[in-house]
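Hey team,

Sharing the Methyltransferase type 11 run so nobody has to redo it. Sequence (276 residues) first:
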Amino acid sequence: MKYDPIKDRLGRFFSRHPLLHRLFFGVLNLLFLRAWYVRREIRRIMSLQPADRRVRVLDAGTGFGQYAYFVAKNFPEATVRAVDVKQEYLDRAKHFVDQTPQADQVTWAIDDLTDLKSEGPFDLILSVDVMEHIAEDRTVFEHFQRVLRPGGHVIINTPSDQGGSDVQGDEDESFIGEHVRDGYNMEDLEGKLRDAGLEPVRSIYTYGEYGSTAWRWLIKRPMQMLGTTWASIVVLPLYYLAALPIGLFLNAKDVAHDNETGTGVLVVARKASSGD
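Structure output:
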């Protein structure tokens, strides 16, 4: 049973109506611990931006588009360039955002991060659960450095090498497919960013003991149920009635805890400014 096909099928279902799509984004932000961490870092970096110009954000590998929408909705002074290699993802996300007041803040385009065509300068680049899918990571980081404004930041969120891809033995037993690497060692990721001219300023492990337990309760087990039979969607509300309070408590504990290790890693890096 693979995670990605189930995820894609759910995305197609919830894109049928704007209210369902809005609910889908809300569920993603609530259940997935990475969204808690990434949104916190976005708020932190956006609070540092000057008030005298528009802030430009590149959502590099936008996927379902929830972070592009989050930035546009919460920061009216920002514009977002949301790119992906999958036209289906872009079409669904654009269709939803075009029906919201944030439509004029977001542009959408097919773009390969290993041959990035989107033109900067950007003040912030988001790369959320993308780099584990790309073998030529050094090339991508070099492109990020090229299109960042001096003093700009990039947020890299990715599985770590501590089991972040949920690999269990051989490839046939891996819960999450489509990954070219099992995860990043934090020092390796920081080194590659430095080699590209981006200096890490904040590096943390996510999905520690608390978050990994929440992942199993809130995401993995429900996905396994759906992978067995889609009829289980009928009983999932009852499942979440019991699991949701526990899972959200564990997510909150993970965010508040200084994890010594974890199955996720988040690095914020900065391009040097002329005054540095």
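The longest strand covers residues 148-159.

Ping me if you want the raw files.
A.
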